[in-house]
Amino acid sequence: MARGEITGRKPRVTADRAIRGPLQAKPAKKVADKARESKAQQQGDDVSESESATATATAANGGTTAANEGGSAANGDAEHEPTPHGEPQSGAPNKLPPIRPPIPVAAYSITEFCQAHRLSESMYFKLRGQGLGPDEMIVGRRRMISVEAAAAWRREREQAATEAAE
Fold first, then answer.
1. For the chain, N or C: smaller number of CB within 10 Å?
2. What integer pLDDT is reported at residue 37 of this predicted model?
């Protein structure tokens, strides 16, 4: 196994794990079994044979016994139920209204125009190369498309589509 300081990579398996083999999971104890054991340890008593028999029957039956189904355990103690939690609050709590209304868009950049009209930029430039793109205005070094030019372009494309369908 190559060392991490030589290869520059973190080893996938530690040296101990490679020798001993993969981890084996221990069987998990049931919550009711743990509660009984801790209660017995607090009282200074070991888990009695009737409780251990109930625990084995509980594990074999998938967590239920005839005694629990009636509502109480074999030794007379009530089973512990998990505490129900409240439902999470939906929506944003205390969401304040915006200070100012958003400024309406007056002109699109080419990227914004493509996003608003669900076009790829390559398709936009393809249409522009064919003379089918919207009218552009040059502002400094940027090319912008006004909202009116975008609306006119949509009307032209709709008319071309209806004429092609007829």
1. C
2. 72
